[in-house]
Amino acid sequence: MIQVSNIHKAFGSNQVLKGIDLTIHKGQVVVILGPSGSGKTTFLRCLNALEIPDQGVIAFDDGSLTVDFATKPKKKTLLALQRKAGMVFQSYNLFPHKTALENLMLGPTVVQGQSKAQAREQALALLEKVGLSDKADLYPFQLSGGQQQRVGIARALAIEPSLLLFDEPTSALDPELVQDVLGTMKQLASEGWTMVVVTHEINFARDVADHVVLIEDGVVVEEGSAQQLFEDSKHPRTQAFLQRIV
Ligand code: ADP
């Protein structure tokens, strides 16, 4: 279990996150919904220290890591958090001058000090897992958006994280490629990966989420099972949000 408490983040005078709490149970898929600009991406980035919250605590209950942002954590602590949480980006963020295989080998060799041979073996296995064995030596520009995103997912897996973070992973894709990536994510969910997913894919949330969180204006408006939020919500802001998007 990962306990996230009281996350605050401002950009200058713009107070974006106003005290967000979230409990992420091992093996669960948490889907974060909310209107554009409500702070979803910023929250996700706080979970692996791509943004540094102004205050708040992220604690792994196995005792392996607790980060209290109020005490200005050391770089080493932030790196430890980054290794625990692999991020899949909306725009893939692959290195354009490296092949799919090389993209996957980078984290393990540079950050984790794995040997090249070991990283290569692992990268090939991950490419096979996401159905891209035959694309290992291609560069990102030679791959479709869906294939690039599956490389992005494999890259996040390559650091062997405890938690996978997905920031609108399908929103840059052509509609016919969306299912491709959602299928890979469903596979990971069924394998028991712990995942936090920011998405507008309501059907994915309905089918796969164990827990759904609605964020608006930097606070959690409502959270619960997909059934609770989509079928039984009594909260006017949840109803208004769902009416706008469904
Ligand atoms: P969402 O993901 O819900 O669309 P974001 O977290 O992307 O929302 O953005 C929330 C707010 O934070 C927006 O007002 C956005 O302009 C602001 N913001 C996000 N990142 C930065 C940044 N790096 N610098 C300044 N403002 C930012």
From TrEMBL:
Pfam families: ABC_tran (PF00005). It is found in: Cell inner membrane. Residues 2-242 form the ABC transporter domain. The keyword 4Fe-4S does not apply. The keyword Membrane applies. GO terms for cellular component: plasma membrane. InterPro entries: AAA+_ATPase (IPR003593), ABC_ATPase_HisP-typ (IPR030679), ABC_transporter-like_ATP-bd (IPR003439), ABC_transporter-like_CS (IPR017871), MetN_ABC_transporter-like (IPR050086), P-loop_NTPase (IPR027417). GO terms for molecular function: ABC-type amino acid transporter activity; ATP binding; ATP hydrolysis activity. Gene3D superfamilies: P-loop containing nucleotide triphosphate hydrolases. It is a peripheral membrane protein. Keywords: Amino-acid transport, ATP-binding, Cell membrane, Hydrolase, Membrane, Nucleotide-binding, Transport. Its EC number is 3.6.3.-. Belongs to the ABC transporter superfamily. This is Cystine transport system ATP-binding protein. It comes from Psychrobacter luti.
